What we know:
The chain has three domains: 5-129, Rossmann fold (3-Layer(aba) Sandwich), CATH 3.40.50; 131-164 and 208-285, Serine Threonine Protein Phosphatase 5, Tetratricopeptide repeat (Alpha Horseshoe); 296-449, Orthogonal Bundle (DNA Cyclobutane Dipyrimidine Photolyase, subunit A, domain 3). 48% of the residues lie in helices and 6% in strands. The protein has helices at 19-26, 49-68, 80-91, 104-119, 149-158, 198-203, 208-221, 223-229, 242-246, 252-262, 267-285, 308-316, 322-334, 339-351, 357-367, 375-384, 399-406, 411-416, 435-454, and strands at 5-9, 31-37, 73-77, 95-99, 123-127. It is globular, with a radius of gyration of 23 Å. Bound molecules: flavin-adenine dinucleotide. The site of flavin-adenine dinucleotide has 27 residues, from helix 9, helix 11, helix 14 and helix 16. Flavin-adenine dinucleotide (FAD) is lined by residues 230, 238-242, 245-246, 272-273, 275-276, 279, 339, 342-343, 346, 364, 368, 370-372, 375-376, 379-380, 383. FAD binds at residues 226, 238-242, 269, 370-372. GO terms for molecular function: deoxyribodipyrimidine photo-lyase activity; DNA binding; FAD binding. Keywords: Chromophore, FAD, Flavoprotein, Lyase.
Amino acid sequence: xxxxxxxxxxxxxxxxxxxxxxxxxxxxxxxxxxxxxxxxxxxxxxxxxxxxxxxxxxxxxxxxxxxxxxxxxxxxxxxxxxxxxxxxxxxxxxxxxxxxxxxxxxxxxxxxxxxxxxxxxxxxxxxxxxxxxxxxxxxxxxxxxxxxxxxxxxxxxxxxxxxxxxxxxxxxxxxxxxxxxxxxxxxxxxxxxxxxxxxxxxxxxxxxxxxxxxxxxxxxxxxxxxxxxxxxxxxxxxxxxxxxxxxxxxxxxxxxxxxxxxxxxxxxxxxxxxxxxxxxxxxxxxxxxxxxxxxxxxxxxxxxxxxxxxxxxxxxxxxxxxxxxxxxxxxxxxxxxxxxxxxxxxxxxxxxxxxxxxxxxxxxxxxxxxxxxxxxxxxxxxxxxxxxxxxxxxxxxxxxxxxxxxxxxxxxxxxxxxxxxxxxxxxxxxxxxxxxxxxxxxxxxxxxxxxxxxx
Length: 455
Ligand SMILES: Cc1cc2nc3c(=O)[nH]c(=O)nc-3n(C[C@H](O)[C@H](O)[C@H](O)COP(=O)(O)OP(=O)(O)OC[C@H]3O[C@@H](n4cnc5c(N)ncnc54)[C@H](O)[C@@H]3O)c2cc1C
């Protein structure tokens, strides 16, 4: 009588370099892949709309690929701990493997489940797969977590190099046990009324094969220009790997090793992967990252009463500020936005519209296909000034100067917000705020933060 092993897939929707899958295969028992859509467990943040769209495509691809290799992917919905325990029983499984995740609520669920399953005599093991460096292995001399990127990354680079990626299994024995699975379509992850995902379908093909193809293309065609033009949104040289890494269609180990093989001097690109590590490190030590100012003196910032019309204008890309509007429309259409423009649009929301960073973070959470529980709040706090190694609060991006510097020919703006082109007859909208006055109001607000930090 076989006793299958369950591989619980989470943020690692891939077959290659998947240590949990490999451990299951090495046990020489049938392997059952499981994905749990958990919108109920305490503290788990429900996925945003664009993320749900991506998840659908990525799960479909993973299921097909597992089936091609002889395996199966069981889909279930509900609180993870309960569902995993049920599937273990249904399948008569004797082992459960997963790759680690780093959010507070997620870690709590995993730790409790590990204990409970072991008490029932089930073998359980978790693996390092989604980060190059486990957060607890990177510590300052005095044993505390890092709060500044440069020494953090230096410390990472001084550790043993990330392990080589594991090869994709040739086959997966799914066994003969029939375990009930939901139908992916019944989860209704795709938007229907209205179907706003046309731009996402045009821009992306979720799934591991497309992820690997993009990595190869990036290394071949764009890496050389990356360091020089990565800040220019019209240049199109960045890797576009963020949703791939977010959903684990590619492991950071694969990205790391393939990059070094392509160009041993690709330090600039690798240090961006380092920022992803730093965001996860920060979340690990500050599980409230999405809701609480990391530097608590920022709680004293006197946010004025919210003007919903301003928030809406920002969300819809109708602020009258060309680079901001272009960025917000790129986001709505494609589910991503160039990093430089993310910084500018976030700074404009916080420091010109004087809207709490958490409302901007939530909008990005809903609209980004790479919406990440660590990187999104980490970067919002970085822009707000309240976060780890943050931009100083008095650094307020001027979106017009930023456009001159990083989109000098106006190509990016023309692509996403054509009404601002010089050669159009259209009347461009008026800015909804005066950049100079609103900047001054923000600086006044930050005086309260300064006072709070002194008291
Ligand atoms: C306000 C704001 C919110 C953001 N929210 C997210 C988010 O939810 N998810 C997300 O993956 N990134 C987020 N970022 C970081 C960054 O903008 C994106 O990772 C990047 O634009 C993705 O494009 P790329 O893959 O072409 O990046 P590349 O320049 O090719 O970089 C390679 C990889 O490095 C990582 N990376 C690069 N910059 C950062 C960074 N600043 N922080 C963390 N990781 C980084 C990403 O995984 C990226 O795919 C945010 C940045 C800002 C300013």
